[in-house]
TrEMBL record:
<keyword id="KW-0614">Plasmid</keyword>
<dbReference type="InterPro" id="IPR012337">
    <property type="entry name" value="RNaseH-like_sf"/>
</dbReference>
<dbReference type="InterPro" id="IPR001584">
    <property type="entry name" value="Integrase_cat-core"/>
</dbReference>
<feature type="domain" description="Integrase catalytic">
    <location>
        <begin position="37"/>
        <end position="211"/>
    </location>
</feature>
<protein>
    <submittedName>
        <fullName>IS3 family transposase</fullName>
    </submittedName>
</protein>
<dbReference type="GO" id="GO:0015074">
    <property type="term" value="P:DNA integration"/>
</dbReference>
<dbReference type="InterPro" id="IPR048020">
    <property type="entry name" value="Transpos_IS3"/>
</dbReference>
<dbReference type="GO" id="GO:0003676">
    <property type="term" value="F:nucleic acid binding"/>
</dbReference>
<dbReference type="Pfam" id="PF13333">
    <property type="entry name" value="rve_2"/>
</dbReference>
<dbReference type="InterPro" id="IPR036397">
    <property type="entry name" value="RNaseH_sf"/>
</dbReference>
<dbReference type="Pfam" id="PF00665">
    <property type="entry name" value="rve"/>
</dbReference>
<dbReference type="InterPro" id="IPR050900">
    <property type="entry name" value="Transposase_IS3/IS150/IS904"/>
</dbReference>
Length: 215
């Protein structure tokens, strides 16, 4: 049944035990949709299930606090298995970040057919050079509606897991320390973290199992 306990006593006991409340950090703008760049329709339309690999990808950026400043992370995720297929990190939020994440995804997955890539309508994703990169790789853009994070809920879910399970539990002393830890989490997420939507398999286990069953 538990015990009645005032908040001041709880705070004192936590201080004595060296415990801290895990809290979410203040929201920080990563990309702005206030621009005159072309915006694609929302082709994905919240259809977050995909029947095969390399058919529907989603992408977004987030940030991580370090003692040296903010570290920015761009990610590309395959909706088929929820695998992180591309990523890039840098201490400056620059256009090259989303380019590098996409180039990694293409190099690692080598899609044979047209891919739909959904993102928010931030300037990095709507920029002319990024759109040219998509066309070069036969990737069709899809953009969320303005101010609607639920249109990219699968990507938001990954970032919530990353921050709750790793980032909010760690104080990074340097960019390099944060980069190494984020890479370690991505590797853990892809190969070991189980997902209820995948029958409690990890993304890589899911892909291996269904690739062998369809061969």
């Amino acid at each position: 049944m538990g015990h009645a306990c005032g908040r001041h006593r709880v705070a004192r006991l936590m201080r004595e035990a060296g415990l801290r409340v895990r809290s979410h950090k203040r929201w920080r703008l990563v990309s702005s949709s206030r621009h005159a760049l072309p915006i694609a329709p929302n082709h994905l339309d919240r259809q977050f299930a995909s029947d095969r690999a390399n058919r529907h990808w989603v992408s977004d950026m987030t940030y991580v606090r370090t003692a040296q400043g903010w570290l920015y992370l761009a990610v590309v995720l395959d909706l088929y298995s929820r695998a992180v297929v591309g990523w890039a990190m840098h201490h400056r939020m620059q256009q090259a970040l989303v380019h590098a994440a996409l180039e990694m995804a293409v190099a690692r997955r080598q899609p044979k057919e047209e891919v739909l890539l959904h993102s928010d309508r931030g300037s990095q994703y709507c920029a002319y050079d990024y759109q040219a990169l998509l066309r070069r790789h036969r990737i069709v853009p899809s953009h969320s509606r303005p101010g609607n994070c639920w249109d990219n809920a699968a990507m938001e879910s990954f970032f919530r897991s990353l921050k709750a399970e790793r980032v909010y539990l760690t104080r990074y002393t340097s960019y390099q320390e944060a980069k190494a830890d984020l890479f370690d989490y991505i590797r853990f997420y892809n190969h070991r973290r189980r997902h209820s939507t995948l029958g409690y398999l990890s993304p890589m286990e899911f892909e291996r199992r269904y690739a062998s069953s369809n061969s």
